[in-house]
Write a structure and sequence with these properties.
globular
Length: 145
C-alpha cells in the first residue's frame, strides 16, 4: 500500500462512528472532501495523506507514536502542525502553519470545505464566528498557496 492508501485506512479506522457537530453527517465525509480537494488541486501523495489525517490527532485517539510508526517524518510533522494546541489563538495557529507549506496547503482545503458548509450551522453567532475564523485563515495562508 502507498502512503495515501495507509492514510485512508487510518482515517477510516479512527474517525469511525464520529459525527460532525454542525450538521450531523459522518465526520469522515468532511475528511474525504478535504482529501479530494487536495487531489483535485494536483498536490502530491504526501499532501493527500496529510489531508486524510488532518484531524486525527486533534479529534481521535490516534497517537503521535502510531503516526510515526505508519508514516514518514514529513507527513507526521505536517499532521502535527495541523493540530491546533489548546489555548492557541487562531492568528498564532495560522501563522505557525505558514512555516509548513505542506500543512498550510492542506489547511486551505480544510477551510474551503468548512466554509462551503458554514451556512448549515443553525446558531447565528456560531456561524458568524466560524466565518470570521475561516476568513482569517484564508487571508493568512493565501501567500503559501
Amino acid at each position: 500500500m502507498n502512503v495515501v492508501d495507509i492514510a485512508i485506512a487510518t482515517a477510516i479506522q479512527y474517525h469511525n462512528g464520529q459525527i460532525n457537530n454542525h450538521n450531523a453527517e459522518p465526520y469522515i465525509l468532511h475528511v474525504h472532501r478535504v482529501a479530494m480537494h487536495v487531489r483535485d488541486r494536483g498536490l502530491d501523495d504526501d499532501h493527500q495523506a496529510v489531508a486524510w489525517l488532518h484531524d486525527t490527532l486533534e479529534d481521535t485517539s490516534l497517537t503521535v507514536n502510531e503516526l510515526n510508526r505508519l508514516f514518514e517524518p514529513r507527513v507526521v510533522a505536517s499532521v502535527l502542525a495541523l493540530t491546533k494546541q489548546k489555548g492557541q489563538s487562531n492568528e498564532d495557529y495560522y501563522a505557525f502553519l505558514t512555516l509548513n507549506p505542506l500543512a498550510a496547503r492542506v489547511k486551505i482545503s480544510d477551510i474551503v470545505d468548512n466554509f462551503s458548509r458554514n451556512h448549515t450551522i443553525q446558531d447565528d453567532a456560531t456561524r458568524l464566528r466560524m466565518a470570521a475564523k475561516y476568513s482569517l485563515g484564508l487571508d493568512i495562508l493565501k501567500e503559501v498557496v
